[in-house]
UniProtKB/TrEMBL annotation, chains A, B:
Matches recorded under PANTHER family: HTH-TYPE TRANSCRIPTIONAL REGULATOR RUTR (PTHR30055), TRANSCRIPTIONAL REGULATORY PROTEIN (PTHR30055:SF235)
Protein name: TetR family transcriptional regulator
DNA-binding region extent: 38-57
Cited PROSITE patterns: HTH_TETR_2
The UniProt record lists the keyword Aminoacyl-tRNA synthetase: no
Superkingdom field: Bacteria
UniProt xrefs under InterPro entries: Homeodomain-like_sf, HTH-type_TetR-like_transc_reg, HTH_TetR, Tet_transcr_reg_TetR-rel_C_sf, TetR_C_16
Amino acid sequence: MTSDAPRRGRRPGAPDTRAAILAAARELFAVHGYAGTSVRAVGAAAGVDAALVHHYFGSKDDLFVAALELRVDPRVALLPVVEAGVDGAGERLMQLFVKVWDIEETRLPLLALVRGVLEPGGQQLVRDGFFRMVLAPVGVALGLDEPERRMQLVASQLVGLVVIRYVLAVEPLASAPADQLVATYAPTLQRYLDGPLP
Amino acid sequence: MTSDAPRRGRRPGAPDTRAAILAAARELFAVHGYAGTSVRAVGAAAGVDAALVHHYFGSKDDLFVAALELRVDPRVALLPVVEAGVDGAGERLMQLFVKVWDIEETRLPLLALVRGVLEPGGQQLVRDGFFRMVLAPVGVALGLDEPERRMQLVASQLVGLVVIRYVLAVEPLASAPADQLVATYAPTLQRYLDGPLP
C-alpha cells in the first residue's frame, strides 16, 4: 500500500487520533526499532485499535515512513531513479539527492533525522528507515548483485556529503552549484552501483 | 613546532596547570573557533601567562591539536601519506584511516569529535581542526590544484564511511575487512585527489 502522493496531502481523519497514533509510532519505532514495533503496539500506546492505525496510515511500512515526518515519501521519489535501470542511476540519484537537499522544505526534516543519528533512538530510525526501507529496496529494484553492500557504499558517500555540505556547511562545497555536485559524485555512485567489488 | 611523538608521551609539567590550560583551550576553541581564540586568552582563562601556555604546549596549532584530545597527532600520522606524493595517496590515506579507526584507543576520541559535529561548538572544532589544520595542509603538501575543494571531496567520503561503519555500524559494512575497505574506497579518494574536477 504505497501512497503515491507527498505526505503533506494527508488522508483525512480526526486530527487528534491521527496525531496520537503518529506520536506513539515515533516513540516506539525510535525505542524498539522497526522490527520490534507492531502496529498493534502502536495502536495500544495511542489508545486505539490496530485496525484504526491501518485505516489512517496504511501498512506498517507506510506508518514508519509517516513517523519519519519527511515531506516526500522517499520510496515514491526514488521510483524514476530505479525504473530507468542501473545505467545512469548514479547520475539520476545525485540529481534527486541535490534537489531534495537543496530545498529547505524537504531539507529540514531530513536534517532532523541526521541529527538523530547520534542518539540511540535516532540510529534505529536511520538504520530501519533509510537502509531497510529505502536503500535496500532500491538496490533490489535495480537488480544489483549484493544490493545491501552496494547501497551502503552509495550511502557512505551521500551521508558524508550531507555532513560536509549541509551540517558543517564547509566552503567551497557548501556553495557548489548542483550540476557541479552531480558531475563530481555521479561517477562515484555509479561505480558503487555496478563497478567491480573487491 | 610540530611534536613528533604521540600525545600520550606528554611534556612534563605541573599537572594542574597543564589541565587548567587544556580545559580553557577546549572551551575557548569550541565557543570562538580557532581564529577567534588567542593563546593569551587561553592563558588568561587558565590564570597563567601566555608564555607558560607556549612552554607547555608549543604553538597555537599544537595547543589546538592537544585540545582535540586525540591519541595521535594527525599532522604527524599523515606525513607518510603526504611524503610519497600524490600517486597512490588515495590508497595510503585509506590504509591510515582504517588503521586509526579500527583501533579502539584511537577511535574513541575521534568518535567524540564526530558526535560534536551536531553541536555548534563541535562544528567549530571539526571545521577548524580537521579542515583547516589537517586536511587543507595535506592538500597543499600533496601539491594539488584546488587543494581545499579536493580535500573536502575526500572528507565527504571518509566522514560518510565513519557514520555508516563506526557510528551506525550497519552490516555488512561495519564488519568489512580492512583490505576490502581500502580496495573499495582508494579509487574514489584517488579520483578526488587528482582526477578531473567538473
